Amino acid sequence: xxxxxxxxxxxxxIRPLINELSNxxxxxxxxxEHNSLSEDxxxxxxxxxxxDLAHTFDSLDPVIGENLENATFTMTLTVEKGVRIKExxxxxxxxxxxxxxxxxxIVLNEEAHAxxxxxxxxxxxxTINYLSRSYLHGSSExxxxxxxxxxxxxxxxxxxxxxxxxxxxxxLKTAQLGDGxxxxxxxxxxxxxxxxxxxxxxxxxxxxxxxxxxxxxEHIAKNTEGLIEHYGVAADESFLxxxxxxxxxxxxxxxxxxxxxxxxVLGRYARLDANPLLLIDEYDVExxxxxxxxxxxxEQLYYLMSRGLSEKAAQRLIINGFLAPLxxxxxxxxxxxxxQGLLETKTGR
Length: 349
Known about the structure:
- A ten-stranded mixed sheet has the order 2-1-5-7-9-11-13-15-17-19. Strands 3-4-6-8-10-12-14-16-18 form a nine-stranded mixed sheet, covered by helices on one side.
- The chain has a domain at 22-192.
- It is an alpha/beta fold.
- It has helices at residues 15-20, 51-54, 62-70, 298-306, 311-322, 333-347; strands at residues 24-28, 31-35, 42-45, 73-79, 89-95, 100-108, 113-122, 127-136, 141-149, 155-164, 169-176, 181-190, 196-205, 210-219, 225-234, 239-248, 256-265, 271-280, 286-295.
């Protein structure tokens, strides 16, 4: 009788998520340990992105250059033309030993639709250099949600790049909820007419953590639309920075670029900076940016406490309301509990 393959034992804190979800790929220390994809129109390969597409992505950044040159793990996920994947593909990247230098490429062919849920997780002190690249052919749609939870002694550089061709729709939502020093960059290039790209980021910093979030949406075709939204909480003595740039090149008429930054500061010594930027080289466009950073509204707090809530309970309720964009990540109860636990730990509430 042939022995059945042994199911890997995953870290206890995220094991319920892996067991609960379907369409799961688990990469552990650079090795695919689990793959339960049920889609026969999705190809998973550990080969790097082919040269025809790779040249479209920025490799001038020294961190990205190091990743591309020294990656110990690469994976390319390709969705065939016209395929619409109903269930999300859940990608877990777990690092237990050694530094992570790896990249994942996602290719959607014409009129393909896919949902990617990415989870980066460490329980030990690691250096992480992670790159994801998404290439959307014409009229394709990608809904990409990424959650990062790293150990407090880790150092992370996370880069995500997306290229959207004509009529393609690229949506990237990220939640930075780890404890280590982190730099996260998202670059979306709208290279085809009527392409759209929206980037929504939630970040929570605590203790003496430093988190820097860069978001860049570039309009390289006419009639393109880009949206940047940042939501953040800085607690204790942490430092959180949002840097967003919307760039419309000359001649890219009737394009739309909007950006908003919203933040709450909880600790006396915490700091949250927002640096929105618009680079507009064309008149016939629509563009705006704004920032609203401050402490918890004392009147809101007093009102809730007058209704019988303790100060901590009132603060928790306000923070949960402020971080409402996280509801997009709560697809099931296990994920909801996981996110809620991270938030309560991060904010000390």
